[in-house]
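Course assignment 3, question 2. Fill in each field.
Student: A.L.
Task: Predict the tertiary structure for the chain below.
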Amino acid sequence: MRFVFPPLRRSRNPVARALSLVAGLAVLGVLLVFGVVVIGVLIAGGVVFLAVRQWQLAAARRNGTVSPQPAAARPKDPDVLEGEFVVIQQGRPVHH
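Answer field:
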């Protein structure tokens, strides 16, 4: 079974055709401007977010609440086992 759109009835009047073309271009322009505004807001929000985050990290470093070395460079606790574990319960099938 095929779905077929009904045939488009294009107007023969050149003024109506020109107006529909202008209306289509106007809608396309509005959508384009809306997209540019949304992208601008997202970029500005990201820049503000990163600036606030860097400012907070700098303030924390000045106060001494954040260590300057990353977590990977810190010595590890020898009593902590690292790895991935799966808890298996009896009587239930295990799917991995």
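Instructor remarks: The mean pLDDT is 85. The helical segments are 14-63.
Grade: pending
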